[in-house]
Design brief:
157 residues, alpha/beta, Rossmann fold, six-stranded mixed sheet, two-stranded antiparallel sheet, 3 helices, globular, binds guanosine-5'-monophosphate
Length: 157
């Protein structure tokens, strides 16, 4: 993925926008595999609150500090589930005049999609399971697990 991004954006001004909190572990790994100069920024959005089900409501908790006008933006996300978060984020960032906004995700759960969203760089497709670890949480916990784990249903049902 890092190699593809490096060649696709060669000679272009690229800013990686990590989606907090879950995306930071993946972003930390990914950015070290990108061999061209890049800017890094973070945006924080609320998605599931304290439950394991999407509310469909997206709220910006922390915005990026950097201007993205006339720059290429790559949103770096941990997982795409319903697609609601990224659809909203992509449309919101486009209003700021970037040259492009593309999406990179470590994980994809396509079976749960509610809205169509083009994913430009994707790590792994996973089944409809709630996963934790590698930056992903349940109620704020388990982000520090080095592996990606399926959370047992009785932990949240
Ligand atoms: P979407 O808007 O695509 O439904 O949700 C995206 C966000 O929901 C992700 O950034 C992540 O925070 C959360 N999410 C979706 N699926 C999972 C999952 O299996 N495990 C965890 N921990 N979070 C998830």
């Amino acid at each position: 993925m890092g190699n593809r991004i490096s060649s696709d954006y060669e000679g272009k001004e690229l800013i990686l926008v990590g989606v907090l909190k879950g995306g930071f572990v993946f972003l930390a790994d990914l950015m070290r595999e990108i061999k061209i100069p890049v800017d890094i920024d973070f945006i924080s959005v609320s998605s599931y609150g304290n439950s394991s089900k999407s509310s469909g409501v997206v709220r910006i908790i922390k915005d990026i500090d950097t201007s993205i006008t006339n720059k290429h933006v790559l949103i770096v996300e941990d997982i795409v589930d319903t697609g609601l978060t990224l659809k909203y984020l992509k449309e919101m960032l486009y209003t700021r005049g970037p040259l492009s906004v593309k999406i990179c995700t470590a994980l994809d759960k396509p079976s749960r999609r509610k809205v169509h969203i083009d994913i430009d760089y994707e790590g792994f497709t996973i089944p409809d399971e709630f996963v934790v670890g590698f930056g992903l949480d349940y109620s704020g916990k388990y982000r520090n697990l080095p592996d990606l784990c399926i959370l047992k249903e009785d932990a949240y049902s």
